[in-house]
Structures
1.
Amino acid sequence: MVARARTSSRDLLGAPSGDGTTRELDARFVWHPLAEPGSADAGSLRVAVRARGHFVEDDRGRLYLDAMAGLWCVNVGYGRREIADAVLRQMTELPYFPHTWANRPAARLAARLAGLLDASRATPGGWRVFFVQSGSEANEAAIKVARAYHRARRGGGARAKVIGRHLAYHGFTLATLAAGGMPERSLGFEPLPAGFVRVPPPYCYRCPFGLTYPRCGVACARAVAAAIEGEGPESVAAVLVEPIQSGAGVFDPPDEYLPMVAEACRRHGVLLMVDEVITGFGRTGRMFGHEWWGVEPDVVTMAKGLASGYAPIGAMAATREVWGAFTVEGAMGATSGLAQVSTFGGHAASAAAALANIDIIEREGLAENARRVGERLKEGLRTLFRHAVVGDVRGRGLLLALELVADRASRAPLAERLAAEVVERCLEAGVIVGRTAHVAPGRGQVLTFAPPLTWSEDEARELVLALDFALSRLGGE
Ligand SMILES: Cc1ncc(COP(=O)(O)O)c(C=O)c1O
């Protein structure tokens, strides 16, 4: 029988505020993501109270160096007054108004994003930007647009399928879960919507084809073309990929990969939709991850680093070719407009946060800094090969991963329990690192690093020292 909590919320609201109260309220009432409800008691909960620069402080006064920038998103670091000031100014002027009207910051932000997206293209995209609150919604909107685009277009037919990749993550809504491929995040919610096809990812360390680069001929990229052809190109609306598939352990693909995928899309009239939710806004050492490979996507989705977590905001940008189909002219009068609306889309204060955030990224050259410090950090991580459990170090910019193995020769994954122990030991050493939890059975052995892009070599060294400490004590070593 389930014990009934005797204390009502009214009793608790009357209690004096303070850290003890936060713990008690949280332990009783909050349903945290990726955890059993009530799995942490009030004593073992971690409570974040403030953050400055690269550090987060808990309610016991302990400081942690945050090597994950929250959830891969606080690109400019914590405590940026100028973002807070911009939000305050906008909040007092006009916090919000439905985006069926225009507002100043959202219009400026759309223009700014269009400029950033064009910076690396040979042909300007003629972008239009649809605003939402999160990465999930940006991808959900992109999937809907891809389907509607083909229907609206003259001769577009019934192309509806979206091709994604195993182990990918594109969000927590049903369609984005279907476009991704993390069984542990979708099993409980099946059936997922129909019309999604998955291909193996470019995971070279554990090649799904059992091949080795470059002799593989980039079989994973050819698999995308094969899937389009196998499904019948006239049934496929889009391919949705991250430039570097991050959530399951940062799969930095071979250089040929993205261009080959883009070419297959072009050849078959399929939209290339690039999910820049993690890889955008300087994270990989370029403003957008896809710039590394010179591809020209039709749709780009963004969130996380767009406002560095200072405000919830996401965006879906589409080229003229795509949005043009939704005009009366483009649709030959058949359909026009885009019948989707989000109450908070184009939120003025969130857009103001994003503009101030992008100012910082550009003014401080944070993409370039991510590239430089990322190289140093990667070198530092490679020194950890002296620990037998380190199997692979990969990634670029400040988007890196270290894969743990039980045996380097066979690449047998390290037991999840031991990988979790490394994360705990890093916390003991005062450093927050990520791990690929809740992905798929037997996939919890990859440590991930996505710190603020403001890191210097000092912070990179501190992370490597913490990992060294954690790995040397692994399993009571
Ligand atoms: C690549 C990618 N796309 C989309 C999302 C979903 O973003 P959100 O959590 O803001 O909905 C995530 C979240 O981690 C992500 O990593």
Note: The pocket of pyridoxal-5'-phosphate is lined by residues 134-136, 139, 169-171, 242, 246-247, 275, 277-278, 303 (CB under 6 Å).
2.
Amino acid sequence: MNLQRPNSGDVTQTTNRAKTVVPSSGLCTRCLDGCTGNCEIFQATMRGRELLYPKPYGELTAGADKNYPVDYSHLNIQGYAMGAKGLPEGVEPGPDSALFPAVNTEAEIGYEHKVRMRIPVFTGALGSTEVARRNWDHIAVGAAISGVILVCGENVCGMDPHAEIDRNNKVVESPEMRRRVEIYRRWYEGYGDLFVQMNVEDTRFGVAEYVIEKLGVETIELKWGQGAKCIGGEVKIDSLERALELQRRGYLVTPDPSSPVNQAAFKAGALKHFERHSRLGFIEYESFMKEVERLRRLGAKRVTLKTGAYSMRELAMALKWASDAHIDLVTIDGAGGGTGMSPWRMMVEWGIPTFYLEAMTYELCQMLAAKGAYVPDIAIAGGLSTEDHIFKVLAMGAPFVKAVCMGRALLIPAMVGKNIGEWLKEGKLPKTVKQYGETVEEIFVNYEVLKDKYGKAVDELPLGAIGFYSFVDKLRVGLQQLMAGSRNFRLSTISRNDLMALTEEAARVSGIPYVMEAYREEALEIINA
Ligand code: SF4
């Protein structure tokens, strides 16, 4: 069985000429000499490396479409006809007390300085890609008013064209980073937090010193990797001057903008973009421990770690080192995840898919716990978008997994809400929106709730933030329903017993009992009594 077909697709805006295609190669079964396109090879004949990336750059996010042998759809959630775990102390379980809106979805992560969240989800890292920059205000305010964590991704200071960089190549001021932090702060209400990510270049630029000392950021996230790719963050640059400036700042820029050949190709219009890449990390125990210590000395209240879909060896390092360093949260991002810009074939073909990665994480955390070691709070990311994903991820990784990171799923409502604002201004609402009305009050189901809470200030909320809030509300209520059905009235009572595996392979990978085995002993005891 073929799990993914190469050589054409929506992501690269390509198609096969023929109706029948060889599954493994993606080439048309009859490739005609004289074909006028439009597969990836046809396009790469002219545009070469441009075909590595989803397009149009800056206007999209992309997610891999490989159909992995096992994923979370291979689990179902158990339901029970009696009981209610986790009701507030003193409340007697019964039909009048165990109502689904009474389910508490509040979560907490962290070692010493805890962060509370209204629901155990947080955003993917929005870094220096154009799509992240354009949607920042919407998603940041949305995260603040929804009470969830917001992650500012890598390279924001280094990419800021107005950043002041001193003689030692350290950032002194970054208006873009300041703007990002300040807008989140303005709407922050005690739930959630703003994490700022650091990669190799950010560390060299002294980003941690800047955001902690000058902007009062409390949480720094060390980045080892992400699910969408196994090379560092990338963006496209469509100005020669900017490409040269970023090269001067120390970034890897390809093709080399200093080369007269590439400058000529750019001026002629054949070369349309340069690419800015980050460096590969080289993890090492001693320097990791020293860096965590240094960040704490600088004043970081929390230090978290984000790692990607690397091998089980690196996963074990992440967990063991995080345990030794008392890291506050480890986010583990599996393959199948999304991105603003990653090479398409890499996104599809590299890394351990999320389901398998979580199964490994559970096993390794259990081993740490059995030794009596500190087990850091864990978050799982990579292709997750629904309330049932939240339930399944928390249950499968219980009691270690405390939250779910959603990249694209949380960016979309911010983007859609922002666009509704634009369409309203232009008087060009599409039918899909117009069906609910032609004013903000009519379109957004939660507008009145927010107006009641914020009064006149509701009109200062970016519409993308209202969209974000509405989507998180859907996740929260949906999660309450699933939790009530499985008789869990708080997150801490959710356990692996609340899941069944629908395929024997999923049972073998995850250790979750196969559907025909789950609760069998209890059932037989009842029948034989
Ligand atoms: S060149 Fe044309 S015929 Fe050949 S594989 Fe590509 S789309 Fe098909």
Note: Residues 93-233+278-413 form a domain with the TIM Barrel fold (CATH 3.20.20.70).
